[in-house]
């Protein structure tokens, strides 16, 4: 079994833009399910999907000492109900103890790997000033914090800071956002790392959530167990001439 990293490694790539994706798309490494997904998408979204899935496969393949095309993906059991079909993602082949989290938004993808539970979320900043949306997903203290935003752009960024902290945490828990987001406070006024507490089928669990420095217009966060003691390493996206080589 390959030796797993002692740090939390986070890779990110741009998957679209005037110069094309950071890593050339490599459809030859995708599996049947990924090809089927790409075939259902409009051409521009299919190209972005292929770019991000092939980047993830090349990086994980390098880390696990396996060819990108040979990787198989599945799920860990859901920590809430035990269902094996909607728990956190994992690489099922080759055999390994790696925990992974993947997030994709228009133009950007992130991959986090760790020796323990991990969750990452990235969002592209966009207009989000909606009282109904805020009421559904934010706590009263979060809404109070956002009410002091001096302009729409600052509001949108503050909203997405709340959102990415919440989603990263819930992905680390293993349930995603299929829960009441307004029950989880992201403490947006607290500098990174923020301390969040969740309860899923048991006692409260503590998480440290780090905001990640990405170029505008992207906002991202990563969550890991508060007692993990792992280092955190952000592998900034760089343009590479070949999809055959992993990011630096």
UniProtKB/TrEMBL annotation:
One record GO biological process: lysine biosynthetic process via aminoadipic acid
Keywords: Transferase
UniProt xrefs under SUPFAM superfamilies: 4'-phosphopantetheinyl transferase (SSF56214)
Domain (4'-phosphopantetheinyl transferase) ranges: 118-223
One annotated Gene Ontology cellular component of this protein: cytosol
GO molecular-function terms, A-Z: holo-[acyl-carrier-protein] synthase activity; magnesium ion binding
Family the entry assigns: Belongs to the P-Pant transferase superfamily. Gsp/Sfp/HetI/AcpT family.
Protein name from the UniProt record: 4'-phosphopantetheinyl transferase
Organism, scientific name: Streptomyces inusitatus
Taxonomic path: Bacteria, Bacillati, Actinomycetota, Actinomycetes, Kitasatosporales
């Amino acid at each position: 079994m390959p030796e797993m990293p002692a740090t939390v490694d986070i890779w990110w790539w741009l998957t679209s833009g005037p110069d094309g994706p950071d890593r050339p798309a490599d459809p030859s490494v995708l599996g049947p399910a990924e090809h089927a997904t790409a075939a259902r998408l409009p051409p521009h979204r299919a190209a972005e999907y292929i770019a991000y899935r092939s980047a993830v496969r090349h990086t994980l393949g390098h880390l696990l000492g396996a060819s990108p095309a040979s990787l198989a993906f599945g799920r860990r059991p859901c920590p809430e109900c035990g269902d094996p079909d909607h728990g956190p993602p994992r690489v099922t082949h080759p055999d390994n103890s790696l925990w992974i989290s993947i997030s994709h938004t228009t133009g950007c993808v992130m991959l986090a790997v760790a020796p323990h539970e991990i969750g990452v979320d990235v969002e592209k900043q966009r207009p989000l000033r909606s009282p109904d949306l805020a009421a559904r997903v934010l706590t009263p203290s979060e809404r109070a914090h956002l009410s002091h935003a001096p302009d729409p752009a600052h509001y949108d960024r503050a909203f997405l800071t709340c959102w990415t902290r919440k989603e990263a945490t819930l992905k680390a828990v293993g349930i995603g956002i299929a829960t009441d987001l307004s029950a989880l406070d992201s403490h947006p006024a607290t500098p990174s790392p923020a301390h969040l507490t969740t309860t899923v089928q048991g006692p409260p669990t503590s998480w440290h959530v780090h905001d990640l420095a990405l170029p505008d217009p992207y906002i991202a966060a990563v969550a890991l167990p508060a007692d993990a003691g792992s280092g955190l390493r952000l592998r900034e996206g760089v343009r590479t001439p070949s999809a055959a080589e992993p990011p630096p």
